[in-house]
């Protein structure tokens, strides 16, 4: 089934939502209120359900309107970006890439790829939503972003997952810690020391606990935090040791911290690209995804 709506219908919807008024939206768009109402009605007929709840004094989104709003915003931003880019040619053509990315990948890996990409495509802008795994999947499913970099584990039939790399869980400790002398450690080696973990609501913690349970191993934590970056701060302060994905540890030489592989068992999370099934990417996003996959392949 095709949906027949125009860019002006989408602009009308977005203006009413942002200005919370048909009157102010009509003025902003230089339309009469009846003409604005017809555009909203046309969009709702195309969608097949109401998007706005109207009273004489109030306008609010329906549940479907709330779900549709991020997608409409992205569509209009991409359309406007394309209009400004048509005067450019070849690699100088502009565009916008909107992605959802795990905070660990967004902090340590993604900037390197974006820097390389911008050397070839200097006019392409980025909007990066650094979100936890569950929120990132929802952003992809809602169409708020073009694709996501996430942990494998989604069972949503509307999403696809393409593996990029295995990211092992490692020990993070200070360089002056007793375990820093070892080339690798086992889980039993961690027991004598205060352990810093992320909260059990974290996808990383859920994955780690499930994998350790198969070997009848349970982490005995002393400090529990929400963000991996906080756990590294506590490690650096000498308050304990931490288990976290290798991607979350500082890359290269660090003045205070080291990481060590953990064996028996070795546990990793699978990082990959999440997309909406059957969805298409903008030319800018296609080019960036191609470079992302190539750069990640070189790191293996």
Count the DSSP helices: 10
Question: How many strands in all?
Answer: 12
Shape: elongated
Q: Which residues form runs of ≥5 with pLDDT under 50?
A: 86-91
- Protein structure class: alpha/beta
Rg, Cα atoms, Å: 24 Å
Binned, the helix content reads: 40-55%
Q: Which sheet architecture does the biggest sheet show?
A: 10 strands, mixed
Q: What is the N-to-C order of secondary-structure elements (H for helix, E for strand)?
A: HHHEEHEHHEHEEEEHEHEEEH
Protein name: LysR family transcriptional regulator
Organism: Phyllobacterium zundukense
Produce a short descriptive summary.
This protein is of the alpha/beta class and 300 residues long. The chain has helices at 7-19, 22-29, 33-47, 63-85, 103-108, 110-120, 133-141, 203-213, 228-236, 283-299, and strands spanning 52-54, 59-61, 95-101, 124-130, 147-151, 159-174, 185-186, 195-198, 223-225, 241-245, 257-263, 268-276. β1 (52-54) and β2 form a beta hairpin.
Topology:
Blueprint: H1 7-19, H2 22-29, H3 33-47, E1 52-54, E2 59-61, H4 63-85, E3 95-101, H5 103-108, H6 110-120, E4 124-130, H7 133-141, E5 147-151, E6 159-174, E7 185-186, E8 195-198, H8 203-213, E9 223-225, H9 228-236, E10 241-245, E11 257-263, E12 268-276, H10 283-299
Helix pairs in contact: 1-2, 1-3, 1-4, 2-3, 6-10
């Amino acid at each position: 089934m095709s949906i027949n709506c125009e860019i002006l219908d989408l602009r009308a919807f977005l203006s009413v939502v942002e200005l919370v008024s048909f009157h102010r939206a009509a003025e902003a768009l230089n339309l009469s209120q009846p003409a604005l109402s017809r555009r909203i009605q046309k969009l709702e007929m195309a969608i097949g359900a109401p998007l706005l709840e109207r009273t004489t004094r109030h306008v609010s989104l329906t549940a479907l309107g709330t779900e549709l709003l991020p997608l409409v915003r992205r569509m209009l931003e991409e359309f406007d970006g394309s209009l400004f880019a048509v005067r450019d040619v070849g690699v100088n053509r502009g565009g916008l890439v909107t992605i959802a990315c795990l905070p660990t990948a967004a902090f340590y890996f993604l900037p390197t790829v974006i820097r390389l990409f911008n050397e070839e495509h200097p006019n392409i802008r980025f909007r990066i939503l650094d979100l936890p795994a569950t929120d990132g999947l929802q952003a992809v499913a809602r169409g708020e972003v073009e694709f996501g970099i996430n942990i494998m584990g989604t069972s949503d039939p509307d999403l696809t997952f393409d593996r990029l790399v295995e990211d092992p869980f490692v020990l993070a400790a200070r360089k002056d810690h007793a375990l820093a002398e070892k080339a690798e450690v086992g889980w039993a080696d961690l027991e004598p020391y205060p352990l810093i973990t992320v909260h059990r609501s974290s996808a990383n913690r859920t994955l780690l606990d499930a994998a350790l349970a198969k070997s009848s191993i349970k982490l005995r934590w002393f400090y529990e935090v929400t963000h991996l970056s906080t756990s590294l701060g506590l490690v650096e302060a000498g308050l304990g040791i931490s288990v976290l994905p290798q991607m979350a540890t500082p890359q290269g030489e660090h003045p205070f911290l080291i990481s060590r592989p953990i064996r028996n068992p070795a546990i990793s999370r699978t990082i990959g690209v999440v997309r909406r099934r059957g969805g298409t990417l903008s030319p800018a996003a296609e080019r960036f995804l191609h470079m992302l996959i190539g750069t990640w392949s070189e790191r293996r």
